[in-house]
Amino acid sequence: MTLQIEHVAFDFIDDVKRLRDPSAILDRLRITSASLGYPYFILTGLPLPNQRLEPFVMLNAWPEAWYERYTAEEHFHHDRVGQAAMRTTEPYRWSDLAIGAEDRSALRVMDEAQSCGLVDGFIVPMFSSDSWQQACAFATDRPAQSSDRELAALHVMSVFAAGAARAAFQPLRDLPELTTRERECLHWAAAGKSAWETSQILGIGLETVRTYRRTLRTKLDVATMAQAVAEGCRLGIIAS
Amino acid sequence: MLDVHVVCATNRHLYESALDDYFRWRYRCYTLEKGWFPPNELGLETDQFDTDDAFHLLGYHEGSLVAGTRLVPCHRPNLLSEVFPTLASRGLPGARHQADWTRMFVVPASRRRGHQGVAGAMVAAVMEYCLDEGISAIGGVQETYWLPRWADFGWDVEVLGLPQTIAGTSCVAAMFRCAPEALEGVRAATGIEGTQIRRRGPVLRFVDTDPAPASQPRRIDQHPVPEAFL
User: DSSP letters of B175-209?
Assistant: First the structure.
């Protein structure tokens, strides 16, 4: 049995590495996760407190009714299970978290999950060291009886599925190539410096900085420096 | 951009105080911070793999040691083969042109989020070194949460077994294929544009038998000695 779960995982990884179509990646993961007792999952970036979840969702295999409810109510911000993904590197199950009776909004999220048929889940946090963190949240409508090995297999498979999904949505070769100076100007813009302040810091002319900033905006396909900073963060060019 | 010095058995006499610094930082990061090893009186962290077979890469920024890491050829005893072989159910890498990569650290003052800092530069230096030396694959035991990072660089990752929890953290054995695209990918993600590897004094080649002659004769590079050595 041990040997079999390893074969399942390694075959999955070999297959998913070759996939570039998000729905193919989703289908391939769903077949395997279902066989391990988790037929539902969502692979998503994690929104900041003032953001909605939907723009960050990469692969959605949650029950439709649950996804509609979860996003309409913006549950992520009260969901103890989801929030925990931002505070740990290690995968965890719903049952690993204790939700106190006083945490009414977190309890409501769990109740609503159950009313949509979901009884347990397994969450894999993923930090890719740029400003965008992701998680793959598996869920099930039957009591989960997965062994540690099966969860380890789900863990590693979800990481490779996420890698394939990220490549599918944002191929590396489409990352804009910035020169060192352009990157420096972007860094100082992110620190709130004006073009003049940047020219002083870097010891170059003001018009030169303005030219770099213009080229930056063109390469990042944005209209303002504020948008350039946001795009730079999103692409992992600068730290947030 | 860092100056990453290669330190091995044959040039280590030129780096005595640098190595002391390096093993002290390993102590601070691995014994004190991570709590992987029991404290000792010397304040140095060394293990049974810090032998003549090991290659240490010491990363300097403006004269200060800011990062370090260790490579051991896979046909020699290494952390994965001797301590965690059960992580490699698919088989241990055992070739002289593969490297077991361990003990990477960045000094706390130089740590930052994102790929643009010292950690990213150090990883770029490691891949540069691997391509220089004809290393075909590099890797070993690591925390599973590192895996997405390699995908960001466009690296080709092969896991050698399922993750296992070791001292409370999920760990996995994985190897990364060394190829020009891997160096381009990490350089693009980290903003490193030039060579960072420095070789001072008589430096061993990582792959100790090489039937094909080197494409260029080895030079002994003259690089300014970082202040930390003086």
Answer: EEE--HHHHHHHHHHHT--S--EE--SS---SSS-
Pairing status of strand B197-198 against strand B164-166: unpaired
Of A127, A160, A172, the CB nearest to B145: A127
pLDDT tens digits, one per residue of B147-198: 998 988 989 999 999 999 998 899 999 999 999 999 999 999 899 999 999 9
Cβ-nearest to B163 among A13, A152, A162: A152
Convert the pLDDT of each residue in B71-102 to its tens digit: 999 999 999 999 999 999 999 999 999 999 99
Taking contacts as CB-CB distances below 8 angstroms, the residues of chain B near A155 are 144, 163, 170
* CATH code for the structural domain at A175-234: 1.10.10.10
CATH class of A2-172: alpha beta
How is chain A split into domains, by residue range?
2-172, 175-234
Partner-chain contact A128 B193, CB within 8 Å: no
CA distance B163 to A154: 10
Distance CA B10, CA B111 (A): 31
Inter-chain CB proximity A90 and B117 less than 8 Å: no
Q: Which of B95, B130, B84, B111 is nearest to B29 (CA)?
A: B111
Tokens 């999103």 found at = A234
The backbone torsions φ and ψ at residue B92, rounded to the nearest 5 degrees and listed phi first, read -85, 140
Q: b/e string for B114-135 if b means 16 or more Cβ within 10 A?
A: bbbbbbbbbbbbbbbbbeebeb
Q: A206-237 b/e with 16+ CB inside 10 Å = b? A: eeebeebbebbbebbebeebeebbbbbbbbbb
The answer to whether A6 faces chain B, any CB pair under 8 Å, is: yes
For B:58-97, CB contacts with A below 8 A are 89-90
Q: Give the other-Cβ count within 10 Å of B52's Cβ.
A: 10
CA distance A114 to chain B (A): 29
Nearest to A236 among B115, B159, B165 (CB): B115
Domain B3-229, CATH: 3.40.630.30
Provide the pLDDT confidence category of residue B218 given band limits of 50, 70 and 90: very low
CB contact B144 to A (< 8 Å): yes
> Cα separations (Å) of B62 from A203, A238, B65, B226?
19, 22, 9, 8
Query: How many residue contacts between A and B have a Cβ separation below 8 Å?
Result: 102
For A153, the closest of B119, B162, B193 (CB atoms) is B162
